[in-house]
Amino acid sequence: MPRDGTITRNKIMDIARQMVLNVGLTGTSVDKVIVEAGVTKGTFFYHFKTKHDLAAALIERYADQDQHHFHDYMAKAEQLARDPLQQLLIFIGLFIEMTEQLEDPFPGCLYAAYCYQSGAISKDVMSRIEEMMHFWRDQLSHKLKAVNQLYTPQLPVTHTQVADHLLTTFEGAFVLSKVMNEPKLASEQLIQCRNYLELLYRADG
Amino acid sequence: MPRDGTITRNKIMDIARQMVLNVGLTGTSVDKVIVEAGVTKGTFFYHFKTKHDLAAALIERYADQDQHHFHDYMAKAEQLARDPLQQLLIFIGLFIEMTEQLEDPFPGCLYAAYCYQSGAISKDVMSRIEEMMHFWRDQLSHKLKAVNQLYTPQLPVTHTQVADHLLTTFEGAFVLSKVMNEPKLASEQLIQCRNYLELLYRADG
């Protein structure tokens, strides 16, 4: 695809993502996206055959960015510390740093937006979201397994439950932050999740 | 309103709530609700002037139940223990017991469903949701203030941040539970939140 095509495609997707997070996918019409993006119908349909193609492309791009983000921060954390618990705490710390800089509430997670309209979304797309949640769970569980070889948790937990608590915190904090219009809420809640890991494994010694 | 009217009104609302949590409010049409509820147009419009009246009524009923639930469980916890930390742990424990019994994922929180379509919902309704989140925060902060007079947190936190972590856990766990189709995820995540409070205040002594 020529460079101009990619720019236009991304522009359409940016407008659509904003609209989906604001009025939901069922409230987003191709006509409105076309008007807001300032493109012709021909251009739109050159890039996306249907609204559902667009919905799938939005999740594909979001999942790619999410996965890239995960690997990027984990690589940084692994460079900054040898100890797996410290790596996890740094990993969360990098997300805290990022979300601390938000001046408006994070507009929301596409996974959550779609899950609250799953009846209007294809099974393939919902499976992709489920796959991404399993990606987070599996990657973090793998790291927590290494943590458990060095530290004994203070209370009975499984890797999966602790791993899920980070994603739970992200998803929940995005909802609260949107409703209460408090941009700092996301970083504050990630701090609670990091506190939990520190206390659970008594990282303080 | 006669008894039959209340039954019909609740039936319409049950159908609508299910639809809103499945396809979003923008995907829910009055016509579809009428067909699914098996009522006439006249009956529907006798109870609700517009779809937005229905949307507001759904939140009002949900908020009432939520608030009632909160007070009911807190009253039980306060009867079962004198210590404010134990009261909080029992309070969360009652929600753990309740969510442990789920055989299907919790269909979702109306606050979250609405917040992901807030652009299509009246400001009054969104303010009501914000008010409910402040209710949770204020009530729990009040209890945490009493906890802080007896226990010193192991890490620097504010009442608000710790209070918000319970609501964050509920909201996040409902999203993960829906996406991953795991009914037990909600109770497991509430256990992590209770673990956090136990460790933060070293409830074990």
From TrEMBL, chains A, B:
UniProt entry keywords in alphabetical sequence: DNA-binding, Transcription, Transcription regulation
Transcription regulation recorded as keyword: yes
SUPFAM superfamilies: Homeodomain-like, Tetracyclin repressor-like, C-terminal domain
DNA-binding region (UniProt annotation): 29-48
Domain HTH tetR-type: 6-66
GO terms for MF: DNA binding
Name by which UniProt lists this protein: HTH tetR-type domain-containing protein
Native organism: Candidatus Thiodiazotropha endoloripes
